[in-house]
Design brief:
Length: 338
């Protein structure tokens, strides 16, 4: 039995495994998003994601606690993978998912025709950055929620909400993508595998770690991504967050590893009418999911109880300990010139 959506702002948390799903639900998530194993979702890592049986078990656990589960089928399938993609849509219905997170218009059409009562959310991979795009998906496919790409300012989010009846979900915390989601071509340039179709920025089979006299270094399909000093934390290698030699300097030429943290503008966005706050991180451990969910639950409850407009600094500090690079940014949310 599906759970009805709450009228309050939802906290939507990630789960790449059944223990992570339980951690999210047990620490206060209103909803959890997951993916099936294989190339039907944008976190296609070995050992990650759910079998059909695990998804059914996780959904049952969530529903018993009053939480919802969304299944991400957020890639653009090629003709050879179309049957697997539509089978995943059918499987999501069979296990009782509360919504599907979709990017591909063909899959939206399939879902609406074959499962007309199924709730559809437009994925961030759909790259809908204006209200007209969102309205197109609503009129054509009946989407009920849109997840906004992390390229819009708070002012733009406010204006967009005022122009569409579609529920708006924003990213509140997690690893920051420098690209417009759904339009990245960097890793496909290096590996031949597109994150928009095969579901992962840096395919595991293309990643190599090497111990050298100069330090540990990582490569993506032969391309040197980074080199780490002794004792320096080594992140998963992605082209956009690698360090490269430019002229005589070596630095993060495209984007420094940092986390998006929207707590400073969260009260403003809630007042504007957002319906959900999303945490990135389906590739993260259950312990990470538990910690982030607990802190974000505290922050969101603080904003919703009406006692204060600002989130306490102690909450932001707690998230900084979990942030990529141990630093955070408002990203595009902070554009005072708009």
């Amino acid at each position: 039995m599906q759970v009805e959506p709450s009228s309050r702002v939802e906290l939507v948390c990630p789960a790449g495994s059944l223990p992570a799903l339980r951690a999210a639900v047990d620490h206060g998530a209103d909803a959890v998003y997951i993916g099936f194993r294989g190339e039907t979702n944008a976190r296609n890592f070995p050992g990650l994601n759910f079998s059909i049986d695990d998804a059914a078990t996780g959904i049952e656990h969530a529903h018993l606690s009053g939480a919802r589960v969304f299944i991400a089928l957020n890639v653009y399938p090629m003709p050879k993978s179309w049957a697997a993609a539509t089978a995943a849509v059918d499987a999501a219905v069979t296990v009782g998912a509360d919504a599907l997170i979709l990017a591909d218009p063909g899959l939206m059409k399939y879902a609406r025709e074959h499962h007309p009562r199924l709730r559809l959310h437009l994925s961030v991979q759909g790259s809908a950055t204006n209200w007209r795009a969102i309205e197109f998906y609503r009129r054509q496919f009946g989407i009920q929620r849109a997840v906004l790409p992390r390229v819009l300012s708070a002012t733009q989010v406010e204006r967009l909400i005022g122009r569409t009846p579609v529920e708006i979900e924003i990213f509140g915390f997690g690893s920051l993508c420098v690209m417009v989601e759904g339009r990245c071509a960097l890793s496909s340039y290096a590996t031949g595998h597109s994150p928009n179709m095969q579901g992962v920025c840096s395919p595991a089979q293309a990643v190599r770690w090497e111990e050298t006299p100069e330090g540990r270094q990582s490569r993506l399909n032969g391309v040197l991504i980074d080199r780490y000093a002794p004792g320096e934390a080594a992140g998963y290698p992605t082209l956009c967050k690698g360090r490269f030699r430019v002229n005589d300097d070596v630095f993060h030429a495209l984007e420094e590893p940092t986390a998006l943290n929207a707590l400073d503008v969260l009260p403003r966005l809630i007042a504007a009418g957002i319906r959900a706050v999303k945490v990135e991180g389906r590739q993260r451990s259950p312990a990470y999911v538990a910690q982030v969910t607990r802190v974000m639950r505290r922050a969101l409850d603080h904003c919703l109880d009406g006692t204060s407009a600002a989130v306490p600094p102690t909450v932001t500090d707690a998230l900084d300990h979990l942030a990529e690079g141990r630093t955070h940014t408002l990203g595009a949310y902070h554009r005072p010139w708009q």
